[in-house]
Design brief:
This is NAD-dependent succinate-semialdehyde dehydrogenase. The protein has two domains: 277 residues, Aldehyde Dehydrogenase, Chain A, domain 1 (3-Layer(aba) Sandwich); 188 residues, Aldehyde Dehydrogenase, Chain A, domain 2, CATH 3.40.309.10. The N and C termini lie far apart (76 Å). A seven-stranded mixed beta sheet has the order 14-15-16-13-12-18-19, sandwiched between helices. It has a six-stranded mixed beta sheet with strand order 9-8-7-10-11-21, sandwiched between helices. Strands 5-6-22 form a three-stranded antiparallel beta sheet, with no helix packed on it. The protein is of the alpha/beta class. Adenosine-5'-diphosphate binds next to helix 8 and helix 9.
Amino acid sequence: MNSDLERKVLDAVPTGLLIGGEWRQAASGATTKVEDPSTGEVLAEVADAAPEDGMAALTAAHEAQAAWAATAPRERSDVLRRAYQAMLAQQEDLALLMTLEMGKPLAESRGEVAYAAEFLRWFSEEAVRIDGGFATAPAGGSRFLVMKQPVGPCLFITPWNFPLAMGARKIGPALAAGCTVVIKPAPQTPLSMLALGRILLDAGVPAGVLNILNATDAQGVMEPIIRDGRARKLSFTGSTGVGKILLEQCAEKVLRTSLELGGNASFLVFDDADLDKAVEGAMLAKMRNMGEACTAANRFYVHRSVADAFAGKLAERMGALKVGRGTEDGVQVGPLVDAKGLGKVVDLVGDAVSHGARITVGGEKADGPGYFYPPTVLVDVPQNSRLNHEEVFGPVAPISVFDTEDEALAAANATEFGLVNYVFTENLNRALRVAEKLESGMVGLNTGLVSNPAAPFGGIKESGLGREGGTVGIEEFLEIKYVAIGGLG
Ligand code: ADP
């Protein structure tokens, strides 16, 4: 432990399971350790749920559902608004906590706290705007009344890469819509979610409306409560493989599902791009969160005429980044989350090099503790390299060259994923033409950042189902009920 401040922030976090408004130990008494990925040091021990804890959390959410659905929208809105304010008031502590358990530099953690809080503000505003409809049947006579009602208790499973934002963007719309929640954060990063749980309780979320399960046996705890049927919705952010397993489990009781799965974003730089803007965008799309984002630019396709210039500028910027423990001043790149994540990056870079790619910067894993990998640029990356097909989830930019727009589009779309693609061009016609033809739920046009709580985030193809954020975000938590009214003549 490096400082008293770190100890103080860690000691303030609840370490139990949140079930029915109480912080409890796991029924088995089991705990699990949370480690600092920059040192391997143990930061905290938190309760590790067993299946019976999962059932208790589901029961609490189910019992709280009717009363929460019946609250005034303004009341739900006010709770979220207070939590938003509290998150901002505690931004420094929350950011430090996130950096400790996840590794990202403090500046990025601060940004994530603000981003996560913004979901609570956005949905506090949406809570009071849930609408419905009324119409006359085309043939006259009957009338159509359309009302929206909360889906019911929701199960959420979130990943470690954005420990606060991924939870807030599910919890915000669910609570706004009048749904209760059982959430399971990733075992690597439970502390941020536990801290958010306390903030939400303090803001007035009633007992049972929000339940938090930390569980290393994710499947053992979640599958029975998915198959139980009392929860009516599952929202998952994580890998495509796990998403498919969960989708099958949801089929048994036909749960509504929202899935935010893997990506394989391309980053297209045309010959008419503003290269400085493209490099700036690339730094953001590639290096935000050390590349550990489903939206991260995974493959760079650059027009032959500007490829050398782009690769040179990018390598210069990447090579100048300061790598280190995220709590240290000036650090821009923290460690990867764990040994598995680091191992994958090492493997994918090794595979690309064995297929003929050349490393222009980085590429050598540092010795010593922590899961550090240096910012790396590879050029001449052949299409058959694993890097062009799998999410690297690390600070590695593989660059390939294209000659025509059709070739660039074909390469970008040659993936089963469809979350986001980035396009850099100053030609308006090309920009719109390419944006229309890209097979993804989102496109970053002359920008390396698409995420915004007020915009609909989500993917197509095997990147997922549904959208989070924007005005459609709350619809994922509402059922439509149509009342046919007769007898009016
Ligand atoms: P990653 O490989 O990046 O950790 P995962 O998709 O494995 O991504 O994990 C995302 C979240 O899904 C985590 O909270 C993890 O605990 C959870 N998870 C993993 N496997 C299962 C499963 N079989 N059932 C339920 N949750 C799971």
